[in-house]
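Dissemination and training. As part of the outreach component of the grant, students in the summer workshop were shown how a complex can be specified as a set of sequence lines and then modelled as a single object. The example used during the hands-on session is reproduced here so that future cohorts can follow it. Participants entered these lines:
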Amino acid sequence: MSENLEKIFGIDLGTTYSSISYVDEFGKALIVPNAENQRITPSVVFFDGGNIVVGDVAKESAKLYPNEVVSFVKRSMGESDFFFEHDSKEYRAEEISSYIIKKLVQDAEQYLNEKITDLVITCPAYFGINEREATRMAGEIAGYNVRQIINEPTAAAIAYGNVDSPGNRVVLVYDLGGGTFDITMIEIRPDAVEVICTGGDHNLGGKDWDDRIVSTLVQEFQNATGTNEDILEDADTCQDLQLSAEKAKKMLTQREKTPISITHGGERVKVELTRQKFEEITQDLIERTIVLTHEMLEQAKEKGYKKFDEIILVGGSTRMPRVAERIQQEFSLNPKLFEPDEAVAKGAAIYGWKLSLNDGLIKRIAKKTSKSIDEIYDSFESTPEEVLKEAVQEMADDTGCALPALERSMVNIKDVASKSFGVVVRNRDNEELIFNLIRRNTTIPVDTKKTFYTAVDNQKTVLIRIMENETTEKTLPAQNAIEIGTAVLHLPSGLPVDLPIEISFKLNNEGRLQITAVESSASRSVEVAVETRAVIQGEELEEAKARCQSIVVH
Amino acid sequence: MERKNFYLLLGLSLDPPETDPQKIEQALKKKQVEWSRYRNHPTKAILAKQYIGLIPEIRKVMFDPRLREVEAAEATKLFRDKEKKKFARIDRHLEIHMSKGFITDEEIAKLAEMHSVGESEIHNRIKIKKEEKFSEIDTQLGIRMSKGFITEAEIDKLSKRYSISSNEIRTRVKCPIRKEGKGQTGKPKKLDKSIEKVINDNLKIINKSSLYNFLDLSPSSSLEILQKKAREEETKFLKIGKKDAIVTAGEALAGHCIAIFKTEESRNAYDVSRARSNLSQLDTDIDVAGMDGKIRAEYFDILVKSAVDFGMDQEEAAEYIEDYCHKKNWNIEKKQQKKRFRIPLAAALAGILAIILVVGVFSWLIKAHQDKKEYKKLLVNVHNQKMPEEKVIILKDFLDSHKKNNYASAAEKILREIQSVIENQEFETLAKNADALLDNQNYEKAATLYRAHLSKYPDGIHAEEAKKKIAAIFSLVDDAAYEGIKQVFERDCEKRISAYIGYLNEFPRGRHREEVRKLILSMSEEYYILIKKKIGFHTQQENWEKCIQFCDQFIDVYEGHARADELKNLRDSFQKNLRDQRIFSHLADEAKLKGTDYAAAKQIYLDYLRAYPDTSVKDKIENELTRLDEIREINRRQQEKDKIRALLRNSGQRFVEKEDSVIIDKKTGLMWCLLDSDSDLGEGLNYESSIQYVKNLTVGGYRDWRLPTVSELVKIYKTPPFFPSVQPKWYWTSKSYSRYADGWSKVIDIVTNKEETAWTKEQADSKQFGTVRAVRP
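and obtained this result:
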């Protein structure tokens, strides 16, 4: 072994649990347990005075210090007005997430006894630009190179495709996690994993099931004690009930009923929750996943995919027996539960491994063909097969990796845009509407251009409002989209009305958006950096980074 | 959806409105922390999300002095309710007409004229009323249908109650109709309470009353339609990119609709729950009744009655209440069998009187012959007299005139004997009469008889007996009174307590004093609640004297009790209120003396407020200040109107005031507002406010005022005879242009009121302040 392959770790940054994974020299993805020897770490952060505690200890502390503990922070990623206050300091969702990442990486470093620098982090396919950017920032605040942000269902499909590949098949990935639901159609071929269509709701997940139990418990407590008090006003009780609810939910995946005790204000009430009751009070939630699935299938049809071969279930919440039951009932297809807690992290690790192999291959091909690395990057696909094979063999020799593993890593991965992106324009009746340049579910990377015109003589500025939305239509009313950024193009004076302005949108593999505007008369071009308040940046970002470096996460 | 007022949402001071940006920022930060914390709360998450989503707008409004001022004004306005009053009257009149089941066009026309509103407005109200009535009927039907069927009799009853044909009701019934209510099959299933709560919380956020309302479908729609619409809604919400609280709630609700409107059974469960939720008011009633952990029998009856008013039948109502109390662990007291009150027969009176009358021969030796002779004569006389009283007189005469007679002592003895016979006789009659009186429970008179006897014969043979009698009667009275107070006033707490106190006053040494005191103590809480209720009522009336009086009443009885101390504090505050009330009426009198000098009148209040900023009549004073401002404003407006009216009279026949404050232009037929916005409000309006202004304008009973077009304004200001003007102004028109040039802006065509026939078109920026001359139709 003359050279160590650069290791890129995969992180599943989940709403309720997170995990970290890497690929060993046989091309096999492995989960690294944390310091408490658990394969998944609760995504809970406890501000214990000057210390930051992440994981199980933090989760248990929630009962005692409900106001010092943050959970479900993923649901607030990209929300500009969310912040957690501790010791009169304000923490945004990104920074809190960075502590979770730091905990995962630190524990893995200790376990493997090596330094970790590069990460691939996953996010729900349904995340928009702001949420993705926030996820990337979380990794950077923690002090690591975030090589790529990839979609959770894509990661799950990569892991699935990596395990056994009996040929071409279209797979539906039903990913019901702690806080989000993603439904994705993916075509898996021996040489490629290609996302066809994606949909979901990033506010629908296991937590909603828990919340239903909590509501029921409150009701039972009121019935038993005859009060009308909202016991959730009490932060301790509220935390306690949430933990009990989660435990009860897990219990009900195995058993038909479970006892729960509710303690509040010195009174203790014991209740029994049956699986039947649990399924009754959460029926609407399941139904929503079904509606969302059909919605996605409709769009897949437009792309010519009318059927699928199998359904795989990932995400911890798919362990609820009702999920598989309902899917079976709806699609008459037996869904497969596929490593619900680990598939995503493993897929991310495999993706990372592929990235680092690619770097190595390109270096070697460049040497063989005496071309520059950039040239190879641009024309990788057209590399002659022999050259490629030679390079792979060389890699295997140099790094000690198994050859079949390397060959398997040559799989091509293609994803789609999970949102539509457009700009605000005015029509003839002077009404504001959105013109979509990139439409949802188009394969990425994608690059589109469109020419617009100025409104008045001597116009000095052009305001570009970049809008994110959910429809696949070309235009839509302005109120149905959210503004994710603005850019201003400055024009010289004295230009006539109706001056053409060409705007181009480029969405890369990671779902990052790049915008260019060109005033065609003078070819005056602006690279538009999408500026947004929704994600941490500037001084605040530097402060957060500094803070994270100086803090030890336990 | 109406958004929350930011002043109220942030809990900022309104009086005066908080304007310090630092303080506002602080309040906002505090709320932001709170909302962020609630962001994942099991039940409050969506609301928290909604508030977090509002933050950018809060910043925009609260840090812009002008917008903030508007916000503050609105917040203040929310406290007062000006709206609706007019409609309340129309509604009342409509109700009278509609009680016969229909309303004629003629009646509508008359009502429209009477309230000076358009007929369409009345039609509108009728529609609303009808809808209200039907929704009430639906609720009532829902309650009855919850047992799985509905009876003919119930339909008839409803039809009578709402004066609507039974057929019309039948069309709204969604379950089998039976002749009789027999054969009731098990209880219908209800929706899980927690789900119901989740649904209701979400409905609140989206401002809808029910899932049907959410889907915009009638409750009688079929399952297929409901299901289809639910899926459409879900898809609709999915398409919206901005996932704010409303969208999140909407998605959740669509999910519930899909689950609930899947089967008739689950839908029925929802309907039942919905109907039952109307009973929450009843629940509060029960809660009040059960305050001391049990339901008194008489409360139970009242509760059943009000439950029946909610549409249950007697049995159902009783069952519902029992069920509710059972859950709360409250006992329902059974009705007590009334004890028959019987006075035990009075104890027998004293022993039989000896009736020994020996009037006759006394063989007595007579010391002296004369004496003997006279004495004999006396004896004969005495013997001859039948009435003992007469005998006494004769004997007394004898004793007076024959003091030295040897037989004087003998005569005295006879006298004494006869006298005691009389006394015995009297006592005997008295005892008989007294017994009769006692039998009739006339204790007082019986006692008086004995007392009279005692004063007549203070040392008489029966004195002791009479005293005993009196004491016996006293305890009888005591017992009777005690029994009385214990039984007679059971129902009425107030009567009861006054009976108890009455007893204590009447029988300061009564045998049942301790028991009565205990009774009084045992009802302290009940009496406290009663007194508090009365105080509550009089507090509303601001009748502080009464309030104090009630406090005193309680304190008198329960001096030293914890509740008494509580009421003492309350009394102190009432006394302060009373003082302030007197001061306020004094201020009002003084202000009245100022007549139309409103500024001086206001000054009186303001001076007082400055001196006593914490007075309890602050609200009243502020109301009075607002009222004065309003009066002044009305006067100002009246003057403006008079000015224009004077000008109108000199402007020929073109412009005529048709109705109050509405000018009709005979040339065009258009109606114009007599006052423009400037004269109406006393301030200029930017374009956005102008649009709001005309939208909310109600003049002459018309509500369809709008901004005039350029040509409409030109017709009155640039075409003679001109519309009269008091001072030069310019008016907004409905024609606006938006454009982007170094930022988005909007310009609007305007027209001046300068009287000229040649004119050039002018424009103003939407942020400038101009005037509106509203026009219709």
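The longest helix of chain A spans residues 343-369. Students were then asked to discuss how this feature might be tested experimentally.
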